[in-house]
Each structure stands twice: as C-alpha cells, then as structure tokens.
Design a protein that fits this description.
It is flat and about 75 Å long. The chain contains 15 helices and no strands. With 327 residues, it is mostly helical. Helices cover 71% and strands 0% of the residues. The termini are far apart. Helix 12 packs antiparallel against helix 15. The N terminus is likely disordered.
Length: 327
C-alpha cells in the first residue's frame, strides 16, 4: 500500500521554469509586487522625482510650447486677443521657401564646422602642451579660462573694436608690417571667417579644460610600456593617447556642435547677421523673425529645425562612435 505525502507549500518548479501543479501564482505575483515597491525602490524613485519634474517643467514644456507655436499664426496680436489661429505646417513652408533659408543653412554648417575644427585642434594641442610640467603651468592654464568667463556680449564688443577696419588694433598691427587694412566685419567675403575666428577664441578654454582632464586620466605606465616598444611621439599619440581619449573626445565634439549651432550673441554683437546677410545663421534667423519681425510662429519653426538638426547629428554621431568602440 502506497502513501502520498502532503505538503502545505507550493510545489517546486519544473526544469523549464514553469510552476508545477499545485503552486500558487497569486502569491508569486504578490511577492514580485512587494519586491518592486520595496522601501529601497521607493526611495530611489523619490530621489528621481524632483529632477524629472525639473526637466519636464523647464525643458519639456518649453519645447512642446515651441512646437505648438510653430503651428500657429502667433504674432503680437496674440498677446492682446489671446487668439493664435492654427495654420499647420504653413510656417515651415514659409521658412523653407524663404530666400534666406538655404544661405542661412549653409552659413550655419560652415560656422559650425570651422569653429569645431579650430577649437578642437587648438584645444587638444594646448591640452597636450600643458600636460608637461614647467614653471607657470598652473598660472597659464588659469589665464586660458578668461575668454570662457567673460560674458559673450562683452567678448563680442571687445572683438568688434579689435577688428574695426579704421581704428582696430589688428589692422594697425598689419599696417606696421606693410599690409593693407582688412575689412573684417564689413566685407561679405571676410565677415563669416572673422566670426568663426572669434568663436574659436571663445571655445578654446572649454576644449582645453575637458581634454586636459582626459589626458590626466591616461596612466603614465602605458607610455612607459609603449616607449619600450618604440611607440614615442606621433606613434604614442596614435596608439595610446587617442584610443584612451576617444570617450572624452566624443563628449567634447557633441557638446561643441550642439552649442555652436545655437550661437547667437557673438554674431549679433559682431555683425548682426550682416553684411549683406553674409553671417546669417538659423539661430540669427529665428531671433530676427521672433524679436525683430515679431513673427513668433515663423521664428519657432526656425528654432525647431535647428533642434531637429542637433538631434540628428547627436544620434548619428553617437551610433557611429559606439560602432567604432564595439569594433
């Protein structure tokens, strides 16, 4: 005669993970629910909530409002009547068919590429230079931060005085060398180059600071081991410095591009988009449509296109960089 053993608890699970007959799935779900909402997890959520609310209120809402505004006929009349007729994509059609859209897009690309290349190359060279120990190293590095600390409108006013064709100190210096004065800010063929040079000057401190920190994190032992194998000079930079610095470079380039795309005050202070629209960018067009022509819907459309370009660049660059790291 055989006897059957009775158990009060749930039967053990089968080899494939499914519960055997006699288990209590309700109790398992309750345990999972309690585990998910334990005190520790609730504490984590409470710490995240303030940051999430801040992002939603001060970043999410303005972006959504800007998108809605770009789909409306939002003008100064709206402030008095409260009416902003819905026009759909008409503002975007107005932007794209504008005579200044494609020149502004081209200038934005040239301004961004030129600024990023100049800032990064000079910043990396200075960061590598300051990695070496020499007298006044710390003092000179701190002096490099001055362009970064100055308000941009002050920096642009200073450079406007320096680049003045008649009384600017730069043309006076060129005169002592027997060279003709250059109309830096009044010649359409030179103005964009002058603006790029000033923006490079402004952005160098950021690049030096971040890249210098990245170089400091590379162990000296790697260079010592590489020197034994003949990896010195350019070879050491190619095989040791650059691979270890790549994550920092990604951050610098990504932030640099996003920042440069929306540069406004430097161009306003130097040329105000002139001469002959030679320094018009998408950021300048957005500002002028919104706060000069008071066509807020069209200005919002310009800014949304600029945001879309930034997002596309960030996605493409990050995916390409991740693929290189994986390889």
């Amino acid at each position: 005669m055989t006897t059957t053993r009775l158990t009060s608890g749930p039967a053990p699970a089968s080899p494939d993970g499914a519960p055997r007959r006699g288990t209590l799935p309700g109790r398992t779900r309750k345990q999972q629910f309690r585990r998910q909402f334990s005190k520790e997890n609730i504490t984590k959520i409470l710490f995240v909530v303030p940051a999430a609310l801040y992002i939603v209120l001060f970043f999410g809402y303005p972006v959504v409002k800007n998108v809605v505004m770009s789909l409306q006929d939002y003008t100064t009349k709206t402030f008095f009547t409260g009416e902003a007729p819905w026009v759909g994509i008409q503002n975007y059609v107005t932007v794209i068919t504008s005579n200044l859209f494609w020149p502004s897009l081209t200038n934005t690309a040239l301004f961004t590429i030129g600024s990023i290349l100049g800032q990064f190359v000079i910043g990396l060279a200075l960061a590598a230079f300051f990695k070496r120990r020499f007298p006044l190293n710390n003092f000179l590095r701190s002096m490099l931060l001055l362009p970064w600390l100055l308000p941009l409108i002050v920096a642009s006013a200073t450079w406007r005085s320096i680049l003045d064709q008649d009384s600017g100190i730069l043309n006076r210096f060129l005169g002592t060398l027997g060279l003709d004065a250059i109309p830096w800010l009044t010649d359409p063929s030179v103005a964009l180059t002058a603006v790029i040079l000033v923006n490079i000057w402004v952005g160098i401190p950021f690049n030096v600071t971040i890249l210098y920190g990245g170089l400091q994190d590379i162990p000296d032992e790697l260079y010592e081991a590489g020197a034994l194998d003949g990896a010195i000079g350019w070879k050491a930079f190619r095989h040791i410095t650059w691979p270890n610095l790549r994550p920092v470079v990604s951050v610098v380039l990504l932030l640099g591009v996003v920042y440069t795309l929306k540069v406004l005050d430097i161009i306003l202070g130097l040329t105000n988009g002139g001469p002959a629209n030679a320094t018009q960018t998408l950021a300048i067009r957005s500002y002028q449509e919104s706060f000069v022509n008071f066509e807020f819907g069209v200005g919002a459309a310009f800014s949304n296109i600029l945001i879309l370009i930034s997002l596309l660049f960030a996605i493409i660059y990050l995916r390409a960089n991740r693929r290189q790291v994986d390889e």
